[in-house]
Amino acid sequence: MNTSADLLKELRIDRKAPPPEPTSRRGLWITLGVIAVLLALAAAGWALFGREKPIEVRTAPTVAMGNGGAAASVLDASGYVVARRMATVSAKITGKVREVLIEEGMKVDAGQVMATLDPVDADASRALSQAQVEAARSQVANVQAQLTEAEANARRLSSLVQQQLVARSQYDQAVAARDALRAQLQAAQRNVTVASRSLAISDNGVDNTIVRAPFAGVVIAKAAQPGEIVSPLATGGFTRTGIGTIVDMDSLEVEVEVNESFIGRVQPKMPIQATLNAYPDWQIPGEVIAIIPTADRSKATVKVRVALAVKDPRIVPDMGVRVSFLEAARPQQAAQPKGVRAPGAAVVERDGAQVAFVVGDEDTVQQRALKVAGKLGDDVHVTEGLDAGETVVLDPPAELKDGAKVVLAEDTE
After folding, report:
1. Which residue, among 338, 397, 413, 388, has the nearest Cα to 365 in the 3D structure?
2. How many angstroms separate the first and last alpha carbons of the chain?
3. Separation CA 289–CA 266 (nearest Å)
4. 1 burial via Cβ count (<10 Å: 0-12, 13-18, 19+)
5. Distance CA 322, CA 120 (A)
6. Strand residue runs (E) in 22-72
7. How is domain 86-118+209-247 classified at the CATH fold level?
8. What is the dihedral of CA 72, 77, 81, 83, to 10 degrees?
9. What angle is formed at CA 219 by the lines to CA 217 and CA 220, rounded to 5 degrees?
10. Phi, psi at 121, each rounded to 5°
């Protein structure tokens, strides 16, 4: 009995137990998991072994070939670039600006119109002078006609007097009238001259409403706008005294203040070498123009004028400059060798040709075929294939190819 009861209990179904999952869904999850693991392993393997590693290299720059001796500097001083010809251009008369034709940085020629003033008053004055000239000429014509009649009357009476047909007094009156008209004609002609000169002055007044450049140069300041009042005199208030400022760039030179204790080292025509603060790598040759024969007692300095041998648009007024006074002029470089000076370790032989690897953008190298002229100690003279300032790879390894990625040796430390 007990055995039969136990067997019946084992056959009873437990409603609380979860039903078993289907075999097909469980296999699907297992397959997806295996695929994900394989993909992760593949990505990690590509990251570690598939990506090309950059080659570690050392580099050096190339420099331009050059020669020439150097002169010793006996004195160094600082100064500024100045212009010998600089003018703030103004009108000769007081008037209202009608138009301004200049802008900063604009080049102007001598006589070029920079601005115009309102010409209403000047035009009216000229019209009046023109009318006076015409009136004076009309007066001359009137007197001339009267004089012609008076001269004819005097000639007629002269013949009648000789024939004793008219009184002598009548002839004398005709002669006096003729002479008076001659004097009036001369006065009228002088009035025409005066009126013509007055017209010329009025023409100058009209021309004074046009402001022109006194010399060729570059506009460095624009001081007036249309509608403003300008005057050659400083009247105060809102009246402008100029239209603009122009500088003759061909007249630029350097003014240097030299300590009076060392002024004895400086001589006229002495060679110099100037370096602008804005371009420290640019050395400009020149010479001393003159030593101004006066000293500044407050600063104990003497002013020296220096001429620059180079005319360049990069040189502008008021730039700071460092001047080195030289013992002798630097010799002229008659024949500059072409090409660049490159480290000998950067030149290798590939496929029977001498090449070098130049580091370019994104740290990739470019293989260049070279033409080597000769050795310069540890360096070589390259005439073709390289430019000055380029970065080349030193001792390029055999695996280094064109377009390969590189990394500098110091960057990996």
Report:
1. 397
2. 88
3. 11
4. exposed
5. 53
6. 55-61, 63-64
7. OB fold (Dihydrolipoamide Acetyltransferase, E2P) (2.40.50)
8. -90
9. 120
10. -65, -40
> Structural domain boundaries of the chain?
56-64+335-412, 73-83+250-326, 86-118+209-247, 120-206
Which residues of the chain are under the pLDDT cut of 70? Answer: 1-30, 33-34, 37, 41-52, 66-72, 234-238, 328-337, 410-413
Domain at 73-83+250-326, CATH homologous superfamily: Efflux pump adaptor protein, beta barrel domain (2.40.30.170)
How many Cβ atoms from other residues are within 10 Å of residue 291's Cβ? 16
Do 288 and 229 form a contact (C-beta atoms < 8 A)? no
Backbone φ and ψ for 200, nearest 5 degrees, come out as -65, -40
- Residue 186: how many CB atoms within 10 A of its CB? 12
pLDDT in tens, 73-124: 788 899 999 999 999 998 888 889 999 999 999 999 999 999 999 999 999 9
Q: List CB contacts of 136: < 8 A, sequence separation 6 or more.
A: 188, 191, 192, 194, 195
For 377, counting Cβ atoms within 10 Å of its Cβ (0-12 exposed, 13-18 middle, 19+ buried), the class is exposed
Which residues, at least 6 apart from 1, have a Cβ–Cβ distance to it below 8 Å?
Answer: none
Per DSSP, which regions of 147-251 are E strands?
210-212, 217-222, 229-230, 244-247
Transcribe 247-282 into DSSP letters: E-GGGEEEEEEEETTTGGG--TT-EEEEEETT-TT-
- Concatenated DSSP letters for 338-362? PSEEEEGGG-EEETTEEEEEEE-GG
Question: Would you state the torsion angle of the CA atoms of residues 220, 226, 228, 231, taken in this order, to the nearest 10 degrees?
Answer: 60
> What dihedral angle (degrees, nearest 10) is formed by the CA atoms of 20, 26, 29, 33?
110
How does DSSP classify residue 412?
Answer: G
Q: How far apart are CA 354 and CA 375, in angstroms?
A: 14
Measured in degrees and rounded to the nearest 5, phi and psi for residue 286 equal -175, -165
User: What's the rounded Cα separation, in Å, for the pair 164 and 167?
Assistant: 7
Query: What pTM does this model have?
Result: 0.52
**For domain 56-64+335-412, which architecture applies?**
Beta Barrel (2.40)
Helix (H, G, I), strand (E, B) or coil at 1: coil
Say if CB 366 and CB 403 are below 8 A apart. Answer: yes
